[in-house]
């Protein structure tokens, strides 16, 4: 009987240790994920983004952003009017900056459009 009790005791201790370790692993993982989201949020929680930050924010290349801008400017130049919202940017001393809020609005309006940046056209 005493042998069964000691086995039960050691089994309970082992199970408790395993639960403690798994709890620590889960909370460490959750903390890291939380820190990653906080970093991403703080990185994009500013008024203006650089070209590289806008590229990362949108998950498209810097070249694609520049091609979208060039396509819209070509259409505006040729037709003297651009229907809809153009990709929002500010040029300061030859550097481009982008408003995150205006980019979000542009995305909503541009959804459904198809940009052919090689031909510099937009299909609706």
Order of helices and strands: HEHHEEHEE
What composes the largest sheet? 3 strands, antiparallel
Strand order of the largest sheet: 1-3-2
Indicate the multimeric state.
single chain
Q: Poorly predicted ranges (pLDDT <50, ≥5 residues)?
A: none
Number of domains: 2
Mean pLDDT: 87
Shape type: rod-shaped
Query: How many strand segments?
Result: 5
The proportion of strand residues reads 5-15%
Name the helicity range.
55-70%
Count of alpha/pi helices: 4
Structural classification: alpha+beta
Q: Output the radius of gyration.
A: 27 Å
Distance between the termini: 81 Å
Structure summarized in a few sentences:
Helix content is 64%, strand content 14%. The chain has 124 residues and is α+β, with helices and mostly antiparallel strands. Strands 1-3-2 form a three-stranded antiparallel beta sheet.
Model description:
- The structure is a single chain.
- The chain has 124 residues and is α+β, with helices and mostly antiparallel strands.
- It folds into two domains: 1-43; 48-123, no CATH class.
- The protein is 64% helix and 14% strand.
- The strands form two sheets. The protein has a three-stranded antiparallel beta sheet with strand order 1-3-2. The chain has a two-stranded antiparallel sheet with strand order 4-5.
- A hairpin with a 2-residue loop joins strand 2 and strand 3.
- The longest helix has 42 residues, at 2-43.
- The N and C termini lie far apart (81 Å).
- This is Helix-turn-helix domain protein.
List descriptors:
64% helix, single chain, 2 domains, three-stranded antiparallel β-sheet, 4 helices, alpha+beta, two-stranded antiparallel ribbon, transmembrane helix, 124 residues
């Amino acid at each position: 009987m005493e042998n069964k009790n000691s086995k039960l005791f050691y089994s309970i201790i082992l199970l408790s240790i395993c639960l403690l370790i798994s709890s620590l692993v889960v909370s460490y993982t959750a903390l890291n994920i939380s820190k990653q989201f906080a970093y991403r949020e703080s990185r994009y929680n500013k008024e203006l983004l650089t070209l590289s930050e806008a590229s990362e924010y949108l998950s498209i290349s810097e070249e694609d952003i520049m091609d979208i801008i060039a396509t819209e400017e070509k259409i505006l130049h040729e037709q003297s009017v651009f229907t809809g919202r153009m990709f929002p940017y500010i040029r300061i001393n030859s550097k481009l900056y982008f408003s995150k809020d205006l980019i979000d609005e542009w995305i909503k309006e541009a959804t459904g459009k198809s940009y052919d940046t090689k031909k510099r056209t937009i299909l609706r």
